[in-house]
Structure formats: C-alpha cells, structure tokens
Amino acid sequence: MPFIPHTTDDTAAMLAAIGAGSIDDLFDEIPVKLRVPGLPGVPAGLSEAGITRLMQERAARNVASLCFLGAGAYEHHIPAAVWEIATRGEFYSAYTPYQAEASQGTLQLIYEYQSMLAGLTGLDVSNASLYDGATAFAEACLMAVRSARQARSRRVLVPRYLNPVWRKVTLSLVAGQNIELVELAASAGRTDLAALAAMVGEHGEDFAALCIPSPNFLGAFEPVDELTDWAHARGMLVIAACNPTSLALLKPPGEWGATGADIACGEGQPLGIPRSSGGPYFGFLTCRKALVRQMPGRIVGGTVDVEGRPGFTLTLQAREQHIRRSKATSNICTNQGLMVTAATIYLSLLGSEGLRRVAAQCHANTRALVSALTGIGGISSPVSPFFHEAVLTLPRPVAPVLQQLAARGILGGFDLSADFPELGHALLVCATELRTAEDIAVYRAALAGVLGVAVAA
User: Fold this and answer.
1) 284, 266 contact by CB (below 8 A)
2) Ramachandran region, residue 48 (left: φ > 0; alpha: ψ -120 to 50; beta: rest)
3) What is the mean pLDDT of residues 408-412?
4) How far apart are CA 434 and CA 64, in angstroms?
5) What is the DSSP letter of 34?
6) Among 7, 15, 283, 451, whose Cα sits 20 to 30 Å from the Cα of 413?
C-alpha cells in the first residue's frame, strides 16, 4: 500500500477523537531518559531529483567482479522468466494464504514446492521454508531433540566442517534451551570415523541426533552411509545438511545407509535466488512422515471441495500465530513466500535434467579451476574428492592475497584460516556453471601475479 501522508488538520482531528493533546502524548509511558532527541548523523532531507542523483552516483561505484566465491552463497544462472513471473502482482504482493478460497494460486505453488523438495531429498514431507539455511539447521536440531524420545538427550553431534555461520546461528538459537552441539573430530577434510568410537566412550551414547553435511563446507564428501547407520544403531536421528544443487547428482538423504536420514535441511539460495548482498534467502526443511508433528512452520496439503474438485489448503500450522506460544514448535518460522515462488519457478523451468546439467557443469568447472590453480608453484589441493568447491593451500596468508585479487576485479574465494586454522593458509574456491575456461585462465594469471610466480601461458 502506498504511503499516504496526513495533513496537519488530519492529525489534529485524530488526536481530538482519541483525547490526546499531541503525538508525543501517545508515547508518554516511555521514560524521558530512554527517548532519542534526534538522529545524529542523518543528513537533511533531499528532493526526489536529489535522491535520484545520489543513488545513481552510489550505483556507479559498483563494479562487476569475476566471482570464484561460494561458501554458502552461489552465483548461478537465473533464467529471466524466474523473476518476471515471481514479481507479478499475484505473487509479489501475496501474503500468507490463510483464506484458501482466495489463495488457490499461492497454495498450489507452495504445494508444488513442497513436492519438489521432498523429491530432491528423498523424504516424505516438506514445510513451506524457513528464513535461511542457518535457521533451517537450527530448527532441525530443535526438531530432533523434541523427537528423540529414545535418547531423551539434549546433545547433537556436529561435524567439524559444518558451515561456520550455521554453527554460530544455531548456538544462539539453541543455547537458551540447554541444547549442546558436540563437535566431531575430522581428518583429511571430513569426519574421522575412528573418532566416533572415542566420542561414545567419552560421552556415552547419549545424543539426540547426528548432523551429516553433504557435501560439507569444504566441498568434501562425508561417509554418509556409514555415519547414518552408525547413528541409527545408537538410537540417534540423522540430520542431513545439503546443497540442493548437489542433490541432482548425489544420493538423496532419504536413501543414506540402510534406512535413510530422518531430517534434511539446507540453504535454498542456489535455486534461483540472487546473492543480493546476503539475502533474503530461504531455508528448506524436509523429514520423514513420522516426525511431521514436530516440523516447524506450515504445510500445504491437497484436498477436494464438496463438489469433488481438487484444491489446496493449509494443513499443519504448529506455529505461534495459531496456538499458544508455549505449544508452538517454532516462534521464528516463516514461509519466505517470494523466495519459495522463485525457487519453484526455477526448478520447474530446469526440470530434473536441467538441474543435473547445472550440477555436472559446476563440478566440471571446479575441477578445471583446481587443476589450473594447482599448476602454480606452492599451491596444492589437500581435500579430494570434492563437489562444487574445493580447498587450496597457498604459500602465504590468504587475506592479503584476496585483497590484491579484489583490486584486480576478482573475488578469489573464502579465507578459511579464521574458522579452520588447522588447515593453514587455506582458501575455499568455487566455480559454478557460469565460469568459463577464459574466466579460469584470468584467475590463474592474476593469482600467479599476486604470488609472484611465473606460469606458462
């Protein structure tokens, strides 16, 4: 709805109707010492022409960089039709479809989204999304603790090479409920299976769930079958943390081990969402049917009306708007409707074969990138096999190298040294389907120049 300014007479009439002398009287319960007298640092207002000129000047400072940075947000090709459709008024301005009779289009779209995500992950049920991958993982941990009746534990096993941002967000969200994340040791870029026995010996078999990222934050493959069966044999649930693009090629979580993972979650940004300086994104969450009552958010179901015609409606809605807050499975969940709309259109346009081609090209490009960069003296790739992104070790600290690459118009990757110092001067690089052989050659030449190493043309 457009902003409609009130005239002085409008304001006076409204104040008179409610018996207030001024607008300040409406806030008299706020102590004076808590009030802000002004907004220091905020410049004076501008005219429409002035603000337009200012924004154009700011926009002109933006530069197009060649991107080899992944680490949780990826530069994929987004077909033009995705956002042409998603930003139509029917979708762009639609809110939560509480009134099924007036929201069949939105409800059907969410139903199709849920069906696609359930198919990708090989599990039974999907909700209508969460804020982002980090909160989806946090909700998966909460869901597992609520569901793990056999263990009655408030501890979750988490591999060393989980996305560090996800770990931090989850710690913030679960600490107040006395839920503990217990880290598993790793070697060669993945969970150390030998460390599992030591973990059980130290803590006992008292864990609600085991998280298995696939691929993990380093792009490496975890031994998903062995880990899944190990966890289930000890009464734990299994939480799969997945890159959705990888699921076009890799075994879905629902097929891991003898009986499959119990919950799957991840970041939906690769499915048609631009990076947009960090958001908005959306998190996906799927599970086995037996756990659906513990799933946060809302679920859209298919039904028929009194005349037998197919239709769609909201079904399970165990959230704070609908029941007592103390009974809600989550008080921070959302359907992120616009992002889910774009993801549904993206997946519909690509289809299963198109998504497989995207995943395969990402993998091929990353292999080509690693091959090119490890040809530079002093650079090695210590973690293999990998998907979509890979670790490189450099002969010097990574941060200054990335700064110099940025000055040359290249986003060279993610510095791993702060989060994973045991890897040394480690750089996480990524090459999606958008990167070309020429792009890789440009990066190779620039990195060699920064390192002062001569390479063959």
Assistant:
1) yes
2) alpha
3) 96
4) 14
5) G
6) 283
